[in-house]
Design brief:
This is Cytoplasmic protein. The chain has 90 residues and is α+β, with helices and mostly antiparallel strands. It has one helix and five strands; from the N terminus they run E-E-E-E-E-H. It has one domain (12-89). Strand 2 (22-31) and strand 3 form a beta hairpin. The longest helix is centred in the C-terminal third of the chain and has 15 residues, at 75-89. 11% of the residues are buried.
């Protein structure tokens, strides 16, 4: 994984201070609230997957303590990483 690239969907991570693994299922997510924020990832508990919105977690790459499994990558993923990188420059 490149220095500025995000982990692919399907990656399994443990957050700093966390005790439960999360599976990444989305990237560059805006959490809408009084103060909308952009997060690098959105994830759910692993192995349970989606339970409901209460058990969906937005977090940043810097919050990850350990990458347990890096998700599938192919040409489409590489192209998507380039789009994300270009969007970050703008």
């Amino acid at each position: 994984m490149g220095e500025n690239n995000l982990l692919p969907s399907g990656s399994i991570v443990l957050l700093e201070g966390g005790t439960k693994k999360l599976m990444i299922y989305g990237r560059k997510q805006i959490v809408v609230s009084e103060d909308p924020q952009m997060f690098d990832y959105i994830g759910v508990f692993y192995p349970e997957g989606y339970i409901n919105q209460e058990y969906t977690f937005a977090f940043n790459h810097s919050d990850i303590e350990k990458v347990i499994f890096e998700g599938y990558q192919d040409e489409e993923e590489i192209e998507f990483q380039q789009v994300l990188a270009e969007a970050a420059i703008d």
